[in-house]
Amino acid sequence: MSSVGFRGVVVGQTQSEVNEALAAVSDHILVQRSVDGDPVAFGEIVRRHSSLMRAYVFRIVGSISEADDVVQEAFVVAWKQLPTLRDPSAVKAWLMRIASREAFGHIRRRPAEQPFEDYSRTTPVDAQPENVAVRNAQLRALSAALDKLSDDQRQAWLLREIAELSYTEIAEEMDIPPSTVRGILSRARASIAVQMEEWR
After folding, report:
1. What does the alpha-carbon distance between residue 85 and residue 90 come to, in Å, rounded to a whole number?
2. pLDDT confidence bin for 81, thresholds 50/70/90
3. Where is the RNA polymerase sigma-70 region domain (predicted)?
4. Helices 39-61 + 15-23 axis angle, to 10
């Protein structure tokens, strides 16, 4: 006779049946179960959001292998900090904030001469050591500029410029009107433009 493990998942089900059952569970419930120490629930959170986080981090660090490392570390941080998440239904945006902090922290620790693996966006000239050093310095300057933004400005800018979400999608993620998103982004861009003036 089958027994019930995770809510909605019956022990003895096939993996595809388990995956289907987990896919129907809300982020809110998954977070609550994860906070209670349920690794199956947290595994579903990882499965559900890792692809977006990986693509997002890759656009920051420019390296597939480094992006994988950063995302893994971001989930380690998330697991430890889950009890501090005030709105479990907002876990996606929360994970993206952790991923961005980890990614830019990684950039700050990266040796200036370390090249990017993103050859699809770089030419042989771009890959020269001196150009790589300049690129890394620009990213460090951007990281510092982002640190000076308010939390909502930083989140909106990253979701727009890095994750490439639409204004409507950002509004949904941040639970604010699209018109407010435009205002927040306008202030964020103005601040970054001032901070990045020497790179223009």
Report:
1. 8
2. very high
3. 45-110
4. 70
State the residue for tokens 């620790």: 109
Closest of 162, 53, 61 to residue 114, by C-alpha: 61
SS3 56: helix
Task: Kindly report the average pLDDT of the chain as a whole number.
Answer: 81
What tokens does 29 get? 């419930």
The CATH fold assigned to 9-110 is Rna Polymerase Sigma Factor; Chain: A (1.10.1740)
The set of residues, in sequence order, having a beta carbon less than 8 Å from that of 27 and lying 6+ positions away, is 45, 48, 88, 89, 91, 92
- pTM (predicted TM-score): 0.62
Distance, CA of 118 to chain centre: 18
Q: Return d(Cα 184, Cα 169) in angstroms, integer.
A: 14
* DSSP string covering 70-86: HHHHHHHHHHHHGGG-S
Fold of 127-200: Arc Repressor Mutant, subunit A (1.10.10)
Domains of the chain, by residue range, sit at: 9-110, 127-200
Can you name the residues that pair with 4 across neighbouring β-strands? 10
84 CB neighbour count, 10 Å cutoff: 8
Per-residue pLDDT tens digits for 11-37? 555 666 666 778 888 999 999 999 999
